[in-house]
Design brief:
The protein is an alpha/beta fold. Helices cover 24% and strands 11% of the residues. The strands form eight sheets. Strands 14-5-2-1-18-17 form a six-stranded parallel sheet. Strands 3-4 form a two-stranded antiparallel ribbon. Strands 6-7 form a two-stranded antiparallel sheet. Helix 7 (297-314) runs parallel beside helix 8 (329-345) and helix 13 runs parallel beside helix 15 (572-586). The chain is globular. The chain starts with 10 loop residues before the first helix and ends with a strand.
């Protein structure tokens, strides 16, 4: 809900911004100085989120594509891609914001920079862009943008609403589409639990009293959420949502009321490790992201408004849901149904809502389409291909309540790709599909609801990739670029669905940025920067992979290439990716074929020492 029209960021205008920055804001009335970033244009809404509304400013909406499989996706981190407006890099003028020499501060990428590089992206045959991380206001240093403070305010580091509208109009003029990121259940880290302000908080169904942490350097002084509040009083009539186990069974959770709060106050849950899914859905994520009580109707009503504002104001074509299966199942289906209806109201009749599913296929199947349990599966591949919307025995929910349209970055296939490409370690999760790609596809074809809500037609739209912003970059390893390209052959030309590329893999980027060995990732900037050369020699190893075959990542700080820009149009990986995308347009079976058949195997199985008895298949 913020904005401040600044023809220049100097003089008296900067003084106004500085005063606004440090003043505490309890709740937002409409403010003229927030206009450039405020999605809400209803001046009379006051603090009533349900009265928020927006306008498209006289521009038409772009209809949805008919077939999302025609559109290879390119994932990027906006902060790391291109800096088109250096004046917004230190927008809040804090010490902990932008630093060209540090990998954990903002690099400076923004919407204007990304727009200037659309020719480069389109030249690979890319037809859709997924911007990882939300569009919304975050703390000044949170460049990944997954910790929103306010769902109606765009982050000024990315640009203004006008910048976004011009950029998205440019995308649509090229016949391309854009998908934004949204966190239905989690926000920033403004809430602590009494008695545990400097330690993690054990999960407890009795809940904890909450307090505001009041962090320093809060942007525009927002040190409390303006639109959601906690309450430290119990509501004995509280009803928890229906919870499910990872094997697809309803779990009975004993409880005695809950707090009458808009936030879950049950404690923290680590990001990794094995924990019941229902506890993850009630816990603060990794001690750093407060969790909304989205299973309460009054909270969900607000979340629905915010997603609709983004669609109506910016003309986006899809929303990817972060940590989708950490949202209660009924809550997510309620949100997606409402969001589809909002998109339909502006002529987007095939709006795309995939989500992050990191667990096994059996649990994920509950969330896809109308959902499907083990007892609701069709009796085979042919039967699954003939299911219609009227055959309710094959679905968990009614026709009005659709969950996810697809899985964004299919982790089950990614785990199989890791084993296929020679990785050794703990690569399996419970109740998942087979590691053989053909068998896995035939299983998910039966297990998942692939009917398109709008057309009633079979429409598999899972998104397959080889790397993303939460996993390692393959070129960091021995023979890594070759492994990467072989993996892309599987994800782009074998698996039925949508190819999902990650920025930089077309340039062979390999530097790893993580600060802990149990969470390995690479988020190097595309433009030149000294930071990734300075920090480019990786020393942490890996807790997940046995004998992690690191190679280039060990010596990246000595490679001069890591401080140059990485937009080489002649890069061999980029040329191969372009060829993959072209082949999908020439041969319809590569784009729309659903029947995978294995004609033969020239393989053998071996037991790698770190795989706990799970065999690895070698050969063709």
């Amino acid at each position: 809900m913020m904005g401040f029209r600044m023809p220049t960021r100097a003089g008296a205008l900067w003084l106004t911004t500085f005063v606004t920055l440090w003043s505490t804001v309890q709740a937002h009335e409409y403010r003229e100085d927030f206009v450039p970033w405020n999605l809400n244009t209803n001046k009379d809404a006051g603090t009533n989120v349900l009265q928020y509304s927006t306008t498209r400013r006289g521009r038409a909406y772009t209809p949805s594509p008919q077939n999302w499989r025609e559109l290879p996706f390119y994932t990027l981190l906006l902060d790391k891609f291109a800096d088109g407006d250096p004046s917004n890099n230190d927008f809040f003028n804090t010490t902990f914001e932008h630093d060209q020499n540090e990998i954990n501060m903002r690099f400076g990428g923004d919407v204007r920079g990304l727009r200037s590089r659309l020719d480069y992206i389109e030249g690979m045959g890319i037809k859709a862009i997924y911007i990882a991380g939300t569009l919304f206001l975050n703390m000044p240093w949170q460049a990944d943008s997954y910790s929103a403070l306010d769902f109606s305010l765009l982050d000024p580091h990315w640009g203004t609403i006008d910048d976004w509208v011009d950029f998205i109009d440019d995308i649509h003029s090229r016949g391309m589409y854009i998908m934004a990121d949204f966190t239905v259940g989690t926000m920033a880290d403004l809430i602590g639990f009494k008695g545990h302000l400097n330690s993690s908080t054990p999960f407890n169904l009795a809940e904890y009293d909450a307090v505001w942490k009041k962090p320093p350097y809060a942007p525009w002084g927002i040190d409390e959420y303006p639109d959601f509040k906690f309450v430290n009083e119990r509501n004995q009539s509280c009803q928890l949502p229906t919870f499910w186990t990872d094997e697809g069974m309803i779990v009975d959770v004993p409880y005695d009321g809950c707090y009458a709060s808009e936030f879950d106050q049950f404690g923290d849950m680590e990001a990794f490790g094995v924990h019941p899914d229902w506890q993850r859905q009630l816990s603060k994520f990794a001690s750093v992201q407060d969790r909304l009580r989205e299973w309460q109707s009054d909270v969900m009503a607000k979340i629905k408004v915010f997603s609709c504002l983004v669609i109506e104001a910016l003309d986006i074509d899809g929303i990817r849901i972060d940590k989708a299966t950490q949202v209660s199942l009924d809550g997510l289906a309620d949100w997606t149904t409402s969001t589809h209806a909002c998109a339909n109201s502006v002529g987007k009749h095939n709006f795309f809502i995939p989500g992050e599913v990191t667990g096994g296929d059996r649990f994920g199947s509950l969330y896809i389409g109308r959902g499907r349990t083990v007892t609701q599966r069709p009796p085979g591949f042919i039967a699954a291909s003939q299911v219609t919307q009227g055959q309710n025995q094959f679905f968990l929910r009614d026709r009005q309540h659709i969950g996810l349209d697809a899985v964004a970055f299919h982790y089950s296939i990614y785990r199989s790709l890791c084993r296929f490409l020679g990785m050794d370690g703990n690569l399996q999760v419970a109740y998942d599909i087979d590691v053989n790609f053909v068998t896995a596809w035939n299983q998910m074809f039966v297990n998942n609801d692939f009917l398109n809500k709008e057309t009633g037609i079979l429409d598999p739209r899972h998104m397959y990739g080889v790397t993303n912003f939460d996993v390692f970059r393959w070129p960091a390893l021995r023979n890594g670029t070759e492994r990467n390209m072989l993996g892309l052959f599987i994800s782009a030309l074998v698996m039925p669905g949508i190819p999902l590329y990650y920025y930089g893999e077309e340039q062979g980027l390999y530097v790893l940025d993580n600060g802990a060995s149990n969470y390995i990732f690479g988020r190097q900037s595309m433009p030149s920067s000294t930071a990734w050369k300075r920090h480019g020699c990786y020393i942490l190893g890996s807790q997940q992979y046995f004998n992690f075959p690191l190679d280039k990542a060990l010596t990246g700080c000595h490679d001069e290439r890591n401080e140059l820009d990485h937009f080489d149009p002649t890069s061999p990986p980029r040329r191969l990716i372009s060829r993959f995308n072209h082949l999908r347009t020439v041969y319809p079976a590569l784009q729309d074929g659903f029947n995978l058949v294995q004609w033969g195997n020239k393989t053998n199985f071996i037991a790698l020492p770190g795989s706990n008895g799970t065999l690895t298949e070698l050969g063709l």
